[in-house]
Design a protein that fits this description.
This protein has about 300 residues and is α+β, with helices and mostly antiparallel strands. Helix content is about 40%, strand content about 15%. The protein has helices spanning about 5-10, 15-20, 70-80, 115-125, 145-155, 160-165, 220-225, 225-235, 240-250, 255-280, 285-305; strands at about 30-35, 40-45, 50-55, 90-95, 100-105, 110, 180-185, 195, 205, 215. The strands form 3 sheets. Strands 1-2-3-5-4 form a 5-stranded antiparallel beta sheet, with helices on both faces. A hairpin with an 8-residue loop joins strand 8 and strand 9 (about 205). Helix 4 (about 115-125) packs parallel to helix 9 (about 240-250) and helix 5 (about 145-155) runs parallel beside helix 10 (about 255-280). The chain is globular and about 60 Å long.
Length: about 300
């Protein structure tokens, strides 16, 4: 029997026609579904001018931790055009109700090992100036109270019996807001980090910029280091040695100290997110093992607090 799964995931004919009409895609090119993303519809299109990515946003696919904002993604790609930190945007397409972004495909493999390389990418990103056209990006939650409130809002959406799977109450911390306004990727998980094909040792490029924000760089570090996010992508969390290598390469003692101070509430917030993902209309079963990994890390902090290395 023929396999119709690929054809069901192909772009709408009207979108293909529009992209051909505007010259963004040439006729009779091959379209391939890219399966790495968990939010939007994404295709790779072969093109003599260079492979392109066509990204069709699913408007209702944003979550409490990860927004889905096509206009923000386009603005960030434009701002980072000359940095090598992000793909090069080519055009917007579709309609306001059905937005589409076309950008240059980043050849390479998604990151799986060598955390020092990721640290260098994130450090370079966090050192970028926030240009005028990015100053209205959303502010990320800042400080222990804001992070705990974000988690509590997710738990409020769950049945009481499920919310009770998390240690209660929230970790009691008194970490004030940093007031830092760095450009954050917002979702620097392994599948959003592509190691360039022409130089596998080079720092990876960040893709999928639909939830950028301004705020404390600790938040990007926490997402990458999250046991849950690593479990989903690689099948296992980072080891203690990999975490040390990452933080040493990031080389910012003040940010590292703040990360360790916030770690209990960061783990608690991510565990709340895993539960939230597991109890939506379309449950994501990958978050079951992810929840276990995040809770194990939280328990590890209670048993033997992680302390920052001395600079």
């Amino acid at each position: 029997m023929p396999d119709h799964s690929q054809s069901r995931n192909m772009p709408p004919p009207a979108l293909v026609t529009e992209l051909i009409r505007t010259g963004q895609i040439l006729p009779d090119q091959g379209w391939t579904v890219l399966l790495g993303g968990r939010t939007n519809q994404i295709w790779k299109v072969e093109d003599p001018r260079g492979a392109r990515v066509v990204k069709r946003y699913v408007r209702a696919a944003g979550t409490p931790l990860f927004r889905n904002d096509p206009s923000a993604e386009l603005r960030v790609l434009a701002a980072l055009r000359a940095t090598g930190l992000a793909p090069r945007a080519l055009c917007e397409a579709g309609t306001p109700a059905d937005p589409v972004l076309v950008y240059v495909h980043q050849a390479g493999q998604v990151w799986r090992e060598g955390p020092q390389r990721v640290a260098r990418t994130l450090k370079a990103l966090h050192e970028q100036p926030v240009t005028k056209d990015l100053t209205d990006l959303p502010a990320a939650p800042d400080g222990s109270d804001a992070l705990a409130q974000q988690a509590l809002a997710m738990l409020a959406d769950l049945p009481v019996s499920q919310a009770a799977r998390l240690p209660q109450p929230a970790p009691i911390l008194h970490v004030p807001p940093s007031r830092v306004r760095c450009l954050l990727h917002g979702d620097p998980v392994p599948d959003n980090l592509v190691c360039p094909a022409d130089d596998p040792a080079a720092p990876p490029v960040l893709i999928d910029w639909q939830c950028p924000a301004l705020g404390d760089p600790v938040l990007d570090l926490a997402i990458f280091l999250s046991p849950a996010m690593q479990q989903i992508a690689r099948g296992w969390p980072l080891s203690a040695d990999e975490r040390r290598l990452f933080l040493r390469a990031y080389d910012d003692p003040a940010t590292e100290q703040r990360l360790h101070a916030l770690q209990p509430v960061l783990h608690w917030r991510m565990a709340a997110y895993c539960l939230w993902k597991m109890h939506q209309d379309r449950p994501d079963l990958a978050y079951g093992p992810a929840l276990a990994a995040e809770l194990a890390a939280l328990q590890g902090l209670a048993n033997q607090p992680i302390r920052p290395e001395k600079p």
